[in-house]
Amino acid sequence: VQGPARVDADLLDRVEAILLLSDVGPALTAEVIHSLRRSAPGTQVKNWSELLELVRGEMKRILSAVPPRPKASVTSGLEVVLLVGVNGGGKTTTAGKLAARWAREGKRGLLCAADTFRAAAVEQIAVWAQRAGVDLIRHQGGADPSAVVFDSVDAALARHCDFLIIDTAGRLHTREPLMHELEKVVRVIRKRIPRAPHQVLLVLDATTGQNGVEQARRFLQFAGVTGLVLSKLDGTARGGVALGIAKELGISLQWVGVGEGVEDLVEFDPDAYVDGIFE
Amino acid sequence: MALLEADVNVQVAQQFLSRVRERAIGDEVLKSLTPGQHLVGIVREELEALLKGPDQKLKISAMPPTTLVLCGLQGSGKTTTAGKLGWLLKERGNLPLLTSVDVHRPAAREQLATVARAAQVRCFEEAGEDPVDLAARSVYAARQTGCDFLIVDSAGRLQIDQKLMEELARVVERVQPTEILYVADAMSGQDAVRSALEFHRRVNLTGIVLTKLDGDARGGAALSVRSITGVPIKFAGMGERPEDLEPFYPDRMASRILG
Ligand SMILES: Nc1nc2c(ncn2[C@@H]2O[C@H](COP(=O)(O)OP(=O)(O)OP(=O)(O)O)[C@@H](O)[C@H]2O)c(=O)[nH]1
Ligand SMILES: Nc1nc2c(ncn2[C@@H]2O[C@H](COP(=O)(O)OP(=O)(O)OP(=O)(O)O)[C@@H](O)[C@H]2O)c(=O)[nH]1
Ligand SMILES: [Mg+2]
Ligand SMILES: [Mg+2]
C-alpha cells in the first residue's frame, strides 16, 4: 500500500510544464516528477518554493552525477581542445571566446581553422583570432582538415604553447563520411600527442530539442566528447536536453555561451543554470 | 508522448490531440474493424492538414524587383538559404540579386558573397555599415541592373533583443518586401514557437523555411510553429549546397514527425 502523494498534484503539473518547455524531454521529466511524488512519504510539501527546492536538488544531482573528468596529465604541457558539433551551433564563436579567455589569463596559444569547407569559415575565425590576440593556423580553402590539424599541433609544440584550440566544420551526425572525417582528425592529433585531444567539446545550441541526445551520442562515438558547451543561453531556450545528455551519456556541461561578444562565455554553474529554468 | 519526443510544443500537442479525439469520436473509430489503424490514419490526416498552407509558392511583386527578406535566430541557416533561393530562382529563369545586411557577424557579408558565387548568382558587395541603408541601396542596385528578385539576408538575432528586432523592423519598413521568410532549424525544441511568434508579431512573416531536414530530428517544431503562427512552411533545407532546397511536403513531414 503506497502512502498518499506528498506533493499537491497542481504544483507537480506546474513543474512538469516548466521542465517540458525547457526541453528536458518527456521521459526524463516523467522520471523527475515520479521521484518527487514518491521519494519521502510522510513529509508534506506544502508550497511552491519547497517543491522548487526539491526539483532543483534533483536536477543538480543529474547534472553533477557525471564524474569530473580526470585532468589528463598533459605530457607536453600543451592542452589540445577540439570543438565539434552540428551546423550553426556556435563552435567558431566559442573557439574565439575560449582562446580570448586563456590568452587573457596569460596563457600562450593557437587557434586552428580546421573548417576548410564552409564559405568564409576561415575569414570568420581569423577575425576571432584577432579579437583574442592569438595566432591562427590556416591552410588554403578546400584543404584536407587533417592536414591543417597536423600542422597546428606541430606549430603549437614548436612554439611551446599552453593551448591549441581546433575549430572543426559543422556536420550533421547522420552524415557517416563526415563523422569518419572527424574520427580521422582525432587520430591525427593522437598520433602526434598520445594523450590528445585533451578535451573534445560538443557545442550545442540551447534551442536544440530531443535530437540533441542523439547528436551527443554520435559525436561521443566518433570523436570521444569529453564535455558540453551550451550556447545561446542568453536567448529564451533553456537547453534542458543537457540533462538527458549528462544522464544517458555521462557528458558534463562545462561552458555556457551567453552572447556574441568575446567575453560571453561563462563556466557552467548548476545553481545559475537551474535558476534560469525556473525563473 | 510521441509528439513531445518529436519536439512538438506541449500546448500544440494538447490542442492537436483533442482535435484528433473529437474526430475519432465523430468518426466512430471504435466501430471500425481496425480501430488502431483508423486512429493512426486520422492522426496522419490531421497532421498533414495542419502542416499544409494555402500559399506555399513564392509571391511575386507587381513592381520588380520582388524583395524577399530572410530572418531568424542565430545559426538557423539564413545565409545558406539565401544562396539556395538564388539558385532556385536562377534555375527557373529569374535574375536574382543577393544582398546581406548582416553588419554584426564576422565575415558575414563575405560568406554571402562566396555562397552567391557558388550558386552562380549576383551579390551586392558595396561597403556599408548601416543595415537599412545597405538594404535601400541594394533595392536601387537591383532595379538598375534589371534584377527581378532581391534576396535580403539579415543577421541572426534573438527575438528578445529589442535593438536588433527594431533594426529588422526598420529594414522591412524600408524595402517593403513581398515575402518575409523566417528561417528555422528543424532540430529546434519547445522554444521554437516563442521566437517565431515574436518575429511574426514584429514583422508579419509570410513564410517559413525549415532547415537541416537532412538530419534525423523529427521536426515537431514545424508543426508547432505552423499551427501557432498560421504562417505557411514554404521550403525545406536539405543540405549545405545551393541545390539543396526543396518545396515543403506536408505529407513527408507528417510521416517524419510520427516517426
Ligand atoms: N546569442 C548568441 N549567439 C551566439 C552564441 N554563440 C554563437 N552565437 C551566434 O550563432 C551563430 C553561429 O555561430 P558560429 O560560431 O558560426 O557557429 P558554428 O557552429 O561555428 O557554425 P558552422 O561552422 O557553420 O557549423 C553566429 O551568429 C554567432 O554569433 C551565444 O552564446 N549567444
Ligand atoms: N546539413 C545542413 N546544413 C545547413 C542547412 N542550412 C544551413 N546549413 C549549415 O548551417 C550552418 C549555419 O548556416 P548559416 O547560413 O551560416 O546560418 P545563419 O542563419 O546565416 O547564421 P547567422 O547569420 O549567424 O545567424 C552552416 O554550416 C550551413 O552550412 C541545411 O539545410 N542542411
Ligand atoms: Mg564554424
Ligand atoms: Mg548568416
Description:
The complex is a heterodimer of chains A (279) and B (259). Chain A has 279 residues and is of the alpha/beta class. Helices cover 47% and strands 14% of the residues of chain A. Chain A is built from ten helices and eight strands. In chain A, α3 (48-64) packs across α10 (270-278). Chain B is an alpha/beta fold. Chain B contains ten helices and eight strands. Chain B has helices at residues 2-5, 10-26, 35-51, 78-91, 108-118, 131-144, 162-175, 192-203, 220-229, 250-258; strands spanning 66-71, 96-100, 122-123, 149-153, 179-185, 207-211, 233-237, 245-247. An eight-stranded mixed β-sheet of chain B has the order 3-2-4-1-5-6-7-8, sandwiched between helices. In chain B, β5, α8 and β6 form a beta-alpha-beta unit. In chain B, α3 packs across α10 and α4 (78-91) packs parallel to α5 (108-118). The radius of gyration of chain B is 20 Å and the shape is elongated. Classes of the chains: A alpha/beta (279), B alpha/beta (259). Chain A binds chain B through residues 17, 20-23, 25-27, 86-90, 118-120, 123-124, 126-128, 172-175, 205, 207-212, 214-215, 232, 234-238, 240-241, 260, and chain B through 1, 4-7, 10, 73-77, 79, 104-108, 110-111, 113-115, 118, 158-160, 185, 187-192, 194-195, 212, 214-218, 220-221, 240. The complex binds guanosine-5'-triphosphate (2 copies) and magnesium ion (2 copies). One guanosine-5'-triphosphate (GTP) sits between chains B (72, 74-80, 102, 105, 108, 155-156, 183, 211-212, 214, 237-240, 244) and A (87-88, 118, 170, 172).
